[in-house]
Amino acid sequence: MVVVAGALALAACSRSKEPSPEEQAALSNYVPPFVMSRLDFGGVVERRFRRYDVNNDDKLTRNEVSQRLLPRFDEIDRNKDGAISNEEWSAWMMARFDAQDINHDGTVTSDERERAREMKEVDLPTPAEEPANATAAHN
After folding, report:
1. Full 3-state SS string of 43-69
2. Could you tell me the pTM of the whole model?
3. Which residues form the domain of 73?
4. What is the pLDDT of residues 55-66, one digit of tens each?
5. What is the pLDDT, as a whole number, of residue 4?
6. Does 67 reside within a domain?
7. Is residue 75 part of a domain?
8. Which of 56, 84, 101, 130 makes an SS bond possible with 60, Cβ 3.0 to 4.6 Å?
């Protein structure tokens, strides 16, 4: 009986744990293909607006947008009232999506994103890149 228990213990120790698919991907620097539909991106746009709108007044002021977006504030604020409405935000963000959707199929792929980067376009945010809370949205 002791021999069997010892053999089982030895067998358990000798097996190395197989890395999960995520761990294997990280170890090999694998970047999965990016595909985002226009509909999915619309959800990202809406959630991001709500996170930036810290006082929940349905508009973004200069102190609510990230430092990265501040230089584009006037471009996004089309009616020049000093605030970005949800409609202005959505129109600007969706125009960015449409500019990257080279074949106009309603989906942006890894190849289309890469091409936009090469053309010096600002990259589209993805759900994984969304800030966890309003504080993180401003960094």
Report:
1. HHHHHHHHHHCCCCCCEECCCCCCCCC
2. 0.62
3. 34-137
4. 999 999 999 998
5. 46
6. yes
7. yes
8. 84
